[in-house]
Amino acid sequence: QVQFVESGGGVVQPGGSLTLSCSASGSIFTIWTMDWYRQAPGKQRESVASITRAGRINYADSVKGRFTISRDNVKRTVYLQMNSLKPEDTAVYYCRMDVGSTVWGQGIQVTVSS
Q: For 49-76, what is the HEC assignment?
């Protein structure tokens, strides 16, 4: 069984920054790809960023140049540094990890509002 601890969400003004983190624990041998997804009210869940164990990174076009994903394999943690936040970034953010099967975090709220 895999457990997640997510942190770093909250309320921020437009143009501000937040850093999300998601740490995994439990019966894990290897974590392959780590992802961040988000779901805004009334919208489908969408991919934000992903990073493979080898360090290959992909971003959604809407966050390129503003968000940075990184990982610490020893700490089993994935991070999402979010800069120049916009109101349209408001959503529940979920981490997802491939540990041989796909597991999801419980989600963390990010609200960008003046």
A: EEECCCCCEEECCCCCCCEEEEEECCCC
Cβ atoms within 10 Å, residue 92: 17
- Which tokens go with 80? 């999402």
Q: In this predicted model, which residue has the larger pLDDT, 83 or 2?
A: 83
Instruction: Please state, for a pLDDT cut of 90, what percent of the chain lies above it.
Output: 89
Distance of CA 35 to CAs 12, 29, 60, Å? Answer: 22, 18, 11
Nearest alpha carbon to residue 104 among 43, 15, 18, 33: 33
For 55-93, what is each residue's pLDDT tens digit?
A: 999 999 999 999 999 999 999 999 999 999 999 999 999
4 contacts 105 by C-beta, under 8 angstroms: yes
Rounded Cα gap, residues 60 and 25, in angstroms: 27
Q: Please, are residues 8 and 108 in contact by the beta-carbon 8 Å criterion?
A: yes
**47: phi then psi, degrees, rounded to nearest 5:** -75, 135
